[in-house]
Amino acid sequence: MVLQPSERHHRDRSHGRRGPWCSPSGSPAPLSSETGCGEGSWILVCRLLVPTQVSLLSMEEDIDTRKINNSFLRDHSYATEADIISTVEFNHTGELLATGDKGGRVVIFQREQESKNQVHRRGEYNVYSTFQSHEPEFDYLKSLEIEEKINKIRWLPQQNAAYFLLSTNDKTVKLWKVSERDKRPEGYNLKDEEGRLRDPATITTLRVPVLRPMDLMVEATPRRVFANAHTYHINSISVNSDYETYMSADDLRINLWNFEITNQSFNIVDIKPANMEELTEVITAAEFHPHHCNSFVYSSSKGTIRLCDMRASALCDRHSKFFEEPEDPSNRSFFSEIISSISDVKFSHSGRYIMTRDYLTVKVWDLNMENRPIETYQVHDYLRSKLCSLYENDCIFDKFECVWNGSDSVIMTGSYNNFFRMFDRNTKRDVTLEASRENSKPRAILKPRKVCVGGKRRKDEISVDSLDFSKKILHTAWHPSENIIAVAATNNLYIFQDKVN
């Protein structure tokens, strides 16, 4: 069963060095004990909500972000469809955390500076800036509504005092500059203090403009708009390691852009057949290699991954490597094609491995071995018996994302009932944790959760029949160098850190 690009979109109604997980000897620290205590345990740092009202406040006003977050925590009635978080991304230093939502807004949180008296608050983030990135549009030529939903956000490495990020909806990619301003010029000759032009007859002396201190103001300005290059819906953007180019991928094509050129892009992958009746697969995700600017991978709805080299040809329709795991005929069913579709693909930080997420599993592939993954982790295998009902309520089309930790030793991905899963690649241990409003006391240790498939259920277990499929963790992010994670659940953003003794 293969879905056409438009149909598939309609059904989707919902993304070597010693690392922080290593002990002084270099061996990986355990994920968590059965009690949820000890080394490797996770505690809630803070729970934030997408602050819809912040954008209504004047930029010059002194906003106490802590009060804003607390007021939203007390009143949950602000949650609307537009408030649902659709992407989460740390910047390269981990000091900033950006979220995009279905209302087209981007909210940036900044990490609190650590002080000697508040060492325990090293993982707290508060609102830094919020702006409207995309607006709803209408394509009159195709009679098609274009949603404002932010599909992906990608940060550029910081080169100066300002920050730059890419955000995209279904059709348009925008480059935003986020900068601070704490001084304003005064003493213009041709303008008064309110910016109005003065009567030249009243100007009798010349003044030297000066900069006066002012309250800190964070400005977000669009620097580039990359539009009109995609027929289908953009599902991925990825910044190249040369930091001069990036790519955007939709269901059938991948385009390469230069940051300085907005009116032209180069098509590097095109899998659209001459006859759309012959369409058998679509592109689901794409990413550049973290170190080699000529290499990138893209995944498909058939569960395959293609590694392409732009040095071989300008049009990379012919891949250099093809990763696919042969299907066991005994396990084939009506849902096989749907659950094998890859929803996310990520290079490891080292560039040696590729991680993919399909509906039931997370797989790790070695770039030097194409015939099968070197590791396979079952995320929620207990849902195999529920595939029929999951198909009927469209949950089987949910697109879960996956992330690496800073040292590539632990991977994380989401599940239902606001559960998210972590897998330690070295010890082969795994843990299921929950991001819920009921357990959102600050500094509280997360207790591992277990799902009971059948038979007698223990006190601390939850039955598979009791899972809430409307609560799902689709989007997660991991701090690039520390054990701090961000988990998006509806319009809530949970930030956890490992317990420090």
From TrEMBL:
Chain coiled-coil ranges: none
Protein name: Serine/threonine-protein phosphatase 2A 55 kDa regulatory subunit B
Biased composition regions of type Basic residues, renumbered to the chain: 8-18
Region forming the signal peptide: none
Keyword Flavoprotein: no
InterPro entries: PP2A_PR55, PP2A_PR55_CS, WD40/YVTN_repeat-like_dom_sf, WD40_repeat_dom_sf, WD40_rpt
Species of provenance: Vulpes vulpes (Red fox)
PANTHER family: PROTEIN PHOSPHATASE PP2A REGULATORY SUBUNIT B
Biased composition (Polar residues): 24-34
UniProt KW Repeat keyword: yes
